[in-house]
Amino acid sequence: MSRAIQITAYGGPEQLKLAELPVGEPGPGEIRIRHVACGLNFIDVYQRTGLYANPLPLTLGMEGAGIVEAVGEGVTHLRVGDRAAYASQPPGAYCERRVMPAKCVVQLPEGIAFDTAAGMMLKGLTAQYLLNKTRPVEGLEPGDFVLFHAAAGGVGLIACQWAKALGLQLIGTAGSAAKCQLALEHGAAHAIDYSREDFVARVKEITGGKGVKVVYDSVGKDTFEKSLDCLRPFGLMACFGNASGPVPPFYPGNLGPKGSLYLTRQTLFTHIATRESTQKMADDLFGMVLAGKVKIRIDQRYPLAEAATAHRELEARKTTGSTVLVP
Ligand SMILES: NC(=O)c1ccc[n+]([C@@H]2O[C@H](COP(=O)([O-])OP(=O)(O)OC[C@H]3O[C@@H](n4cnc5c(N)ncnc54)[C@H](OP(=O)(O)O)[C@@H]3O)[C@@H](O)[C@H]2O)c1
Prior knowledge:
Layout: E1 2-7, E2 17-21, E3 30-39, H1 42-49, E4 58-59, E5 63-71, E6 83-87, E7 97-101, E8 105-107, H2 114-118, H3 121-133, E9 145-148, H4 154-165, E10 169-174, H5 177-185, E11 190-193, H6 199-206, E12 212-217, H7 224-228, E13 231-239, E14 262-265, H8 268-271, H9 275-290, E15 298-303, H10 307-315, E16 322-326
Helix pairs in contact: 3-4, 3-9
The structure holds NADP nicotinamide-adenine-dinucleotide phosphate.
NADP nicotinamide-adenine-dinucleotide phosphate binds near residues 122 and 123.
InterPro entries: ADH-like_C, ADH-like_N, ER, GroES-like_sf, NAD(P)-bd_dom_sf, QOR-like, Quin_OxRdtase/zeta-crystal_CS
Protein name: Quinone oxidoreductase
GO molecular function, one term: NADPH binding
């Protein structure tokens, strides 16, 4: 049996209930993992509210780190006793132990602590594919400007550091002066408090009127339209989240007069669809962390049983960096 946080109906944080669930043995292509730490991500909120629908009852959570307890038939890249970490579908990480597909689980290097891993797999692999693979048609060169919303959040602080390592000038937005300061301390070249400042005007000012090559927008509804106005011709609007709500239906004709812009909606799960791509991206992330180029900040820790409090804080924009749940 394993303690787990489940929902039986979509709704607010009050739906998160502690349950005792059977665990069982891994089948072909699966492992059983005992979590040392689990990650909290904004996608958990979308799954809790039903914005992203899943069959109910549902144990939430897409990110974790721990020890491999059992290995199913055909799994060759993991052994019993291995330190391991993952960002993976299906949801189910908010628990002590689970059986799950082995495909997206990788061995965790000795130099990376379990809670660090639980705070970085989903967010760090996202920063990896955004900055390295989600690029404008004209490419990205050192010195280029990009705009990254919610820069003091979990994905945001990793992206600030990674962008700096790539030589990019990341302009970060965040909802307070303290969060802006945090983004700057983590490598953002500029920071805009979008709760007080007009971020379009500030981006124009910073880039000498030219605009940025890419906007990485996970805020969604509140920033989408204005983000388009921050792009230079042929720029890329990379939507990857809905923290403020989903973007309403959009008319592609609007992209023409704004400078023949490109629009994409990215999701990590396309990038980690195979074991090979997951391992390659994870190796890149581990390399950045072990080299000290990307530091993972765990600014909030909660016992697993207090997952509802963690959700409330995340939705109230009270968190910075990564949050872990400790089973
Ligand atoms: N598509 C993908 O592959 C993928 C993968 C990972 C994450 N994501 C997305 O990336 C975003 C960041 O994820 P995360 O887990 O690291 O979360 P996070 O950035 O730590 O938290 C979300 C942040 O969004 C900002 N925000 C703006 N408007 C908001 C609103 N109305 N309500 C709540 N927050 C609001 C807040 O920062 P400020 O107060 O500074 O505005 C808040 O701290 C999320 O939208 C998530 O869904 C997408």
